[in-house]
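Lecture notes, continued. The same structure-token format from the folding unit now serves as the input rather than the output. Read the line below as a description of shape only.
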């Protein structure tokens, strides 16, 4: 059974930083794309950033220059360094991964989310 578990969320003041982690566990033969999504109250879920197995990345315009996504392929772990946080970044942040597991094909997996609150 594959699981994605996020950690690192919390309460931070505007202008502060947080680092989110996402650890994939279970029977994993390979991970293609990993990504962070977020959902603020009353808004649809949006993709924040993604990273491919070769390290290629892309970011939503709203976080470019402030957030950095990275991954450790050996540890099946992904990170999101978030700097210069603003109240508009408040949301539940979800980890996503495209994983090749015992099913023999790549499937989509999601974590349960971690709350990030930016407030003074």
């Amino acid at each position: 059974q594959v699981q994605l578990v996020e950690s690192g969320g919390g309460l931070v003041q505007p202008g502060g930083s947080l680092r989110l982690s996402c650890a994939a566990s279970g029977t994993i033969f390979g991970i293609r794309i990993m990504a962070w999504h977020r959902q603020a109250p009353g808004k649809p879920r949006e993709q924040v950033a993604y990273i491919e197995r070769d390290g290629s990345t892309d970011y939503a315009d709203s976080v470019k220059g402030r957030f950095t996504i990275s991954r450790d392929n050996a540890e099946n772990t992904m990170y999101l360094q978030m700097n210069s946080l603003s109240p508009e970044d408040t949301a539940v942040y979800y980890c996503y991964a495209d994983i090749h597991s015992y099913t023999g094909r790549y499937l989509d997996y999601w974590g349960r989310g971690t709350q990030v609150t930016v407030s003074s």
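Point for the exam: The chain is about 0% helix and 55% strand.
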